[in-house]
Amino acid sequence: MRKTAALLAILIGMSGIISAQSDSLQANRYITRATTLGVGYTNILDTYLSPQEYKGIEGRVARETMRMTKLFNGNVSLQNFFQANLSYTHNNPDNNNTFAGLVNWNYGLHYQFHINDHLKLLAGGLGDFNGGFVYNLQNSNNPASAKAYANIAASGMIIYRFKIKNYQLVARYQANLPVAGVLFSPNYGQSYYEIFTLGNSDGVVKFTTLKNQPSVRQLFSLDFPVGCSKLRLNYLWDIQQSKVNQLKTHTYSHIFMVGFVRDLYLVKNKKGNPLPANVRAY
Amino acid sequence: MKSKKYITYYTIWSIAFLFLPLLFSSCVEEATYNNTPQGNFEELWKIIDEQYCFLDYKEIDWDAIHTKYKKRISANMTNDGLFEVLGDMLAELKDGHVNLYSANNVARYWKWFEDYPTNFSDSLLKNYLGTDYRIAGGIKYKILEDNIGYIYYESFTDGIGSGNLDEVLNYMAICDGLIIDVRNNGGGIITNASKLAERFTNEKVLTGYIRHKTGTAHNAFSDPYPIYLEPSNNIRWQKKVAVLTNRRSFSATNDFVNSMRILPLVTIIGDKTGGGSGLPFSSELPNGWNVRFSSSPHYAADMSQIEWGIDPDIKTDITPSDFNRGIDTIIERARAFLKE
User: Fold this and answer.
1) Number of A–B residue contacts, CB under 8 Å
2) Which of A125, A149, B128, B197 is such that its CA lies 20 to 30 A from the CA of B266?
3) What pTM was computed for the model?
């Protein structure tokens, strides 16, 4: 009888530990993180600098994390997408060049509709923050154009899991569409000297909508296992456009990227409690 | 019930993705011309028509210019021939800030100094500076025999630091007066000109206004925005100053003279400045030739135009007899004035 009671106590205790462990492995702490690098083609127009298009090569790096949240019964995911690019382009006669760069950060939420075991549709919104430049190597008092804009973007995603033989693959299509925002632009014939040295900043920050900033970022990605790792191939079709202060800009980029995906679990570390001694790396 | 829900989702998403191609129909593009003689001519004419800031002020009928020069464009003309016609068309603007750059030539309008006395000579200057002058940043300077300080600033493209100016003015502190020679200074960076000018005022002074084009119409301009000269927090000059000018004192130098002439202890001596009050921008033709043009006009404190130059307070030319004797008449006039 005593033995039975002791065994029961151990089992209850163990089940307590097991349930505590499963409680601690919360869905919102699983993170899928991908870092990708790539190159591609870009086409740049900025009429503040030149009415001609500049075309050439672009390099880009992107880092993306996605995780579930506790919102709406755990049906909302959080996406944190950071990317930076640099391009070197030339005009049609190939006798002048521009350098351009942009840093972009997207941060937002998607509601996940689970259609079936293979297919998920995501719909949500993102904060879209951008800063960069276009530098023309020939110009005098308008040698460069600064890029600074922020948007609220509508975002949709299709995630499809499938298998080819034993290979587990995940295909994803995402489109981000800036709906409303603010954008910095000099006035039509205004110099940066007048804006920043003399301080005349009237009219250089404009509200944007789909009408004067019809932009979209589209991302196609495919995740597949290679050995113990998971590889990601990205095709990014990035269309950034604006028509503000009678100045027109566009950047059309087609970028092919490759990188690794990691699935991580975040360990809660409130009050600075260290990890157990036997698993600490330092 | 569940399948109905899914059908709704699919429908919403299908509609959403159907709208995506509509976005691509709203591409932001700029209508440009072909890389032909006709196309390059039309692009240049359009750039000036939409962006040049003095068409109305100079009463230029740009449509008539189009008619006049289009006759000289032919499909099979050479690059040199096209460059000559486009250069001639730009010369109609009578603006030293207007240039066309190809790989083998620069079209320019230089009559604003070529048709006037030079009023400056390197060999004459050598008689005053000698070989033992000092250099600080873009400034050459020396104390002349009659205890007048002399500064030559050849180009505002060359920078000058606050430390440089402190040293120069400190060195000149014992002088009875100061000459700032900006003859043949074709301009450069406006902030260098302002940095120097702010050493000669003890109070904030309105020196002029700036405007920019707000659209493609010839008269589409912003409201005038005031430009102030703020006194430097470092060493400031408190004695008489003579600023020496000639027709090649242009652009940022014209702006410097415009600021300095307002200050009570400053007198402008020499010839009228060359003008050039439009801040130049650049653009480009389909064949890659770069065009520079005045885009943003500066005005004097009374809103008068200074595009054609600024008259000196004391008009002086270098006389042939002085020149032959190695004397710079303008420097001598300034020395006499500062000794008065």
Assistant:
1) 133
2) B128
3) 0.89
